[in-house]
Every structure is written in structure tokens, then in C-alpha cells.
Write a structure and sequence with these properties.
single chain, Rossmann fold, 2 domains, six-stranded parallel sheet, 18 helices, elongated
Length: 409
């Protein structure tokens, strides 16, 4: 099959699930072309990006921000491509139908490479926010491709709160919707998507790249706690910092490392200083995938205290939980979004209510005092990820969904 992936940025260190999905389909023999607005890695590419030759399979729209430069480049594209695609290009400029997306020339810049690289059997949008563009591109190209949309969290929580009518055409024209958990499937149905078009399809990780590590704490050694997250409200990092502070005040020896960057970094650093735990809690910023894996191996517990942000933004299932569990790291997270579909409370990790440092501290304290439970949870977590979230089996499932879709009229 010839498959187009629509993404915002590619490759992105924080979106390895997209890379895993593409690599899996390429390994199965399919021709995948990636369309992206920008690159998200600034040279730090995951090894699968190089191995699968994805640079040659990726097209960036490169739409100039300067209006004059945009018009000049658009005129060049029109002269260059008009003989082949004049009618379709005219459709992309239909302001009455596509409004500001046509007026800004965005659809022209997007449709030209789409027409050049196509036609496609499947167009797969990696976030719901890109779905409307897929509908427009299929209309402009007069394509008979099947439209598939992955739903990952923000796209049906915060985004829909701001733009309640955004998916009307997508729900009508889209052929298949793939929420990454049952929680998001329920949200899709509530928003008006036909349930028969929805199949829960988890985001996977390559379990073969995460060696199971049996962790042992040396007597007197500080417990090494890890969080890997963007520093935004829905990741709940402030509550994890407070939980660590509580345990430190009770005499526990903890080293807490927070990997990631974001708009809350300065306020979180101030919180650490206010609690006088600067020597024990480190905000180390963004790291490469390899550096993150090394930190996972060196740590004893991972905390991912996800929560519903004040804006309404919510998670699906954070991939970092899968990666930690695949390596045998016990996890502490929250009863949030699709997380309970991955973490079985008391078996493969511990789950606590959102927005409450007390239960977080209690859960971490329990694992500190019961290292034997850490080993049991680490083993159970590895089994859980292997059984339900391995990218190889999920790629085969996705291929089957595509093939089934191709057989429908």
C-alpha cells in the first residue's frame, strides 16, 4: 500500500510513537511518505529515522512566513506545476470553500507535494487536529484514498473545547478513527463520531530496544526517582516535587531527576528552591532518546503524575510509562485518561488520584520501604507492555485495519 502520514513535526523526540508506526509499516513492505510542517529534532534523530531512510521519505511544506515571499514562492509553484495539476491547484485557492486556509495559500503549499507524491491508498493523520486538512487535500486532489485519524488526547480535549465544530466534516468524511485508549474512544463518541468508525489502537514501543533490568538498591543509597515530561500543567510535576519534599522532611534519602523542558520550568525551579531541596531535585532539561534510556536504567522508580489541566487538556497514555515498564522500572502514576489501561494498580505499578501530593508521597514511600514489591511490579510491567503495547504486533494490527478498510466501498 502507498500511505501518506500527515504530522505537525517530524521526527520529534517527544513523538517516537509516530516514528515507531512508520518504521513498522516500512518493515512490512509498505511505501510511506511523511508530510510535515517542520522538523522537531534539530539534528538529534532516533536511530530508526536513519535506518529506514526516512529523510528521503519526508516532505516539508516550508511555507514562508513573510507574505511577499509566500506569494512569490506560490507563483513559482503555480508556473512549475500548472501543466500537471492546474485544476487541483485552482481548487486549493477556493476561498469561498476553504476560507483563510486558501487565502493564506497554505492549501496550495500542502496540495502540490501531495499531488506530486500521490495518489495514496491511505492518508493517516497522526493527530485529530490534522484531520480537516486531510479532508481538504482529498477533495482538492479528487482522491479516493481512505482517511484514517489517530486521536491522542489534546486533539479531543482542549482543542475541541476551543473549536467545538472543528471536526464536523472529518467525522462525516473520515473512514477510520484510532483513539489510543478506551477513554478517548468514549470522548469521540460523546463528540458525535460514529462508533462503528472507531477502533482503539494503542501507540506502541519497540520492546526489543528496552532490556529488562533487575534493580537492586545498595543499603544507604538514595532512591533515584525519575520523571520524564514536558514541563506543562497536565504533567503534574509540581505535585511530584511536593511529594518528594514531604518524604525528604521525614528522613527519606531521595534523588529526584526531572527530564524535559517547557513553560513551567522557571516556576518549578522556584518551587524547588522554596522547599529547600535544590541539592536533591534536578531539572535537567531535554535529553536525547539514548540519554533518557540510560536514566531509566539507572533509576529505581518513575513518577508520571498526569492530571487534567485547568484548560481541559488531558493525556491518553504517556509513552514514557511504557518505556519505563518495558525496562522493569516500577511506576507511580494517576487514575487519569487511559493510564489505567496500561498500569494495573498494585500489580504493574501504583495509581493515585490526580492533584494530590499526599497519595503520591504515600505511594513512593511504600515502594521505598518495600523493594521486593518494586521487583514484582517491574516484572509485571514488562509482561504487560510486551503483551499489549509492542510496536511489531501493533504494526501488523494496523496493516490489517488498513487492508480491511481498502475492501470497503
Amino acid at each position: 500500500m502507498k500511505i501518506a502520514f500527515l504530522v505537525d513535526k517530524f521526527p520529534s523526540i517527544s513523538q517516537t510513537f509516530v516514528l515507531n508506526q512508520i518504521a513498522g509499516l516500512v518493515d512490512l513492505g509498505h511505501d510511506v511518505i511523511v508530510f510535515a510542517a517542520k522538523s522537531g529534532c534539530e539534528g538529534n534523530h532516533h536511530d530508526s529515522y536513519e535506518k529506514h531512510g526516512l529523510l528521503k521519505k519526508t516532505h516539508y511544506y516550508r511555507i514562508p512566513k513573510n507574505k511577499i515571499a509566500r506569494i512569490v514562492k506560490a507563483m513559482f509553484l503555480i508556473v512549475k506545476d500548472a501543466p500537471k495539476n492546474s485544476v487541483a491547484m485552482l481548487r486549493s485557492l477556493n476561498v469561498f470553500r476553504y476560507g483563510k486556509q486558501a487565502l493564506s495559500l497554505n492549501l496550495l503549499f500542502m496540495s502540490v507535494p501531495f499531488l506530486e507524491k500521490g495518489p495514496f491508498d491511505i492518508v493517516h493523520c497522526q493527530f485529530g487536529t490534522l484531520g480537516p486538512f486531510a479532508v481538504w487535500l482529498s477533495q482538492i486532489s479528487q482522491s479516493k484514498c481512505k482517511l484514517v485519524t489517530s486521536i491522542r488526547g489534546y486533539d479531543v480535549t482542549l482543542f475541541m473545547k476551543k473549536h467545538p465544530e472543528a471536526y464536523r466534516a472529518l467525522f462525516d468524511k473520515g473512514d477510520l478513527f484510532l483513539p489510543v485508549c478506551e477513554f478517548l474512544k468514549e470522548r469521540l463518541v460523546e463528540l458525535g463520531c460514529e462508533e462503528k468508525k472507531i477502533v482503539v489502537h494503542y501507540s506502541g514501543i519497540d520492546c526489543s530496544k528496552f532490556n529488562y533490568v533487575q534493580r537492586h538498591r545498595v543499603l544507604g543509597e538514595p532512591v533515584k526517582v525519575l520523571t520524564i515530561a514536558r514541563l506543562v500543567e497536565k504533567k503534574g510535576v509540581a505535585f511530584a516535587i511536593e511529594a518528594v519534599s514531604r518524604l525528604v522532611s521525614e528522613g527519606e534519602q531521595i534523588e529526584y531527576t526531572v527530564v524535559g523542558d517547557g513553560m513551567l520550568r522557571e516556576s518549578l525551579q522556584q518551587l524547588i528552591e522554596d522547599m529547600r531541596i535544590e541539592g536533591l531535585v534536578r531539572l535537567v532539561g531535554a535529553k536525547t532518546h539514548e540519554e533518557v534510556n540510560e536514566l531509566i536504567v539507572q533509576s529505581h522508580v518513575l513518577m508520571a503524575p498526569s492530571l487534567t489541566a485547568g484548560s481541559g487538556d488531558q493525556e491518553g497514555i504517556p509513552n514514557v510509562l511504557k518505556e519505563a515498564m518495558a525496562s522493569g522500572l516500577p511506576v507511580i502514576s494517576t487514575f487519569h485518561g487511559g493510564i489505567p489501561e496500561l498500569v494495573t494498580d498494585g500489580v504493574s505499578g501504583l495509581l493515585v488520584p490526580e492533584r494530590d501530593a499526599g497519595p503520591l508521597a504515600a505511594a513512593l514511600g511504600y515502594l521505598i520501604r518495600h523493594p521486593e514489591r518494586c521487583q514484582e511490579m517491574g516484572q509485571a510491567g514488562r509482561r504487560q507492555v510486551e503483551q499489549k503495547f509492542d510496536t511489531k504486533s501493533l504494526s501488523k494490527k494496523l496493516e490489517g485495519l488498513y487492508l480491511e478498510l481498502m475492501q470497503t466501498t
